[in-house]
Amino acid sequence: MRVLAVNAGSTSVKVSLLDGEQTLAEYDGLEQALGECGTARLDAVAHRIVHGGRRTAAVVVDDAVVDELRGLVELAPLHQPPALDALERCRTALPDLPHVACFDTAFHTTLPEAARTYALPARLREQVRVHGFHGLSHAWATGRVRALAPRARRLVVAHLGGGASLCAVLDGRSVHTTMGFTPLDGLVMATRSGALDPGAVLWLAQHTDEDLPVVLARESGLLGLCGTGDMQEVLRRQAEGDAAAGQALEVYLHRLVVALGGCVAALGGLDALVFTAGVGEHAQQVRERVAQRLAWLGVAVAEGGDAGPVGGDREVTAPGAGVRTFVVHAREDLQMASELQRLLAGQLAGGV
Questions:
Q1: Which residues are known catalytic residues?
Q2: Are strands 13-19 and 2-8 parallel, antiparallel or unpaired?
Q3: What is the number of other CB atoms lying within 10 angstroms of the CB of residue 66?
Q4: I need a labelling partner for 42 at 20 to 30 A (CA). Which of 16, 133, 182, 260 fits?
């Protein structure tokens, strides 16, 4: 099955043409993809949608589904609008193909009730609950590590990119994650603050004229701490003795390791630690520093670099380590294609 996988982020759109697990082409934007694929044989289009509400699986898109997803824009204002715009453009350009929405929130619908519930009055609890995000990436990394290390039941997947989140995975199911009601929660990110005392948010709203949605989503995180959201630049400046970059890195690592410890507690132990996404895959110094701070847990990575090609899936566990460590190349497009094919095959089998 030839699938066009559309991954619309807050600032760019990545598009892949897939045939099974083979990547036939990659495009820098939607216009190029639609122009070149309009004459190609396509079977379906898969769309990454960050927020799917309480949907537990991918769904074939119709007008009612689009209306439903537009109702969730306020909960993911950086990501939902561009994804829905890309969806509409594709439905207009390719009206005879099935368009399937694949949700970042769906992987986390297995969260135990205690893990998804905030301590709010009953009238608010059903509206405000933990959704979790980056589910397509967490699902792909989980599947890859289960293939590489079948006996590893307890995983923590660290999706570290411009956005960042951890997911505690038990037997392939999400049981805890660091993003909550919105993608602002949890770890320090490139431009997002991560977890912040709600009292501080209330104080800022009452005592400043700041545009808080902009401040917390676009002006905070590493950028707010040292003037750049680029981890490679942070590492370079820190190595040169830049105090602000050094502080930013320490804050980033502190929040990351403390949250990772919470994931381990939720699992009751750890069999494998998995790094994925831009920082997770390419910032070896970050992986090494995380491992050093988790040495008490049995985490240690191979000294001198990675045992495998950069950009591929590889194990980086040091000899004698009690916890296995992996680096998995983020392939949300392949996860989307897989979910699409399961959905459409199920519909055919059911005579739909």
A1: 104
A2: antiparallel
A3: 16
A4: 133
Q: Give 172-192 pLDDT, tens digit per residue.
A: 999 999 999 999 999 999 999
In tens, the pLDDT along 138-149 reads 999 999 999 999
Residues of the chain with CATH 3.30.420.40: 2-128+332-349, 151-328
- For residue 348, what pLDDT is reported? 61
Q: How many residues does the chain have?
A: 352
d(CA 55, CA 52): 6
| CA separation for the pair 177, 156 (Å, rounded) | 9
User: What is the rounded distance in angstroms from the CA atom of residue 265 to the CA atom of residue 153?
Assistant: 14
| Maximal CA-CA distance, the chain | 65
Amino acid at 97: L
Digit-coded pLDDT (tens) for 256-302: 999 999 999 999 999 999 999 999 999 999 999 999 999 999 999 98
Tokens encoding 2: 């030839």
In CATH, the number for domain 151-328 is: 3.30.420.40
Q: Are 283 and 232 in contact (CB under 8 A)?
A: yes
**Which residues is 23 bridged to in the sheet?**
18
Q: Average pLDDT, whole number, for the chain?
A: 92
Q: What is the pLDDT of residue 148?
A: 94
pLDDT in tens, 70-107: 999 988 888 899 999 999 999 999 999 999 999 999 99
For 2-128+332-349, which CATH class? alpha beta
Identify the burial level of 21 via C-beta atoms within 10 angstroms of its C-beta, where 0-12 means exposed, 13-18 middle and 19 or more buried. exposed
- Separation between Cα atoms, residue 305 and residue 287, nearest integer Å: 10
Please list, in sequence order, all residues whose beta carbon lies within 8 angstroms of the beta carbon of residue 331, skipping any fewer than 6 positions away. 140
Alpha helices in 283-350 (DSSP H): 284-293, 332-349
Euclidean distance between CA atoms 89 and 154, whole angstroms = 41
Q: Record the tokens describing residue 96, joined without a space.
A: 């005879």
Average pLDDT over residues 300-310: 62
Report residue 88: phi and psi, to 5°: -65, -40
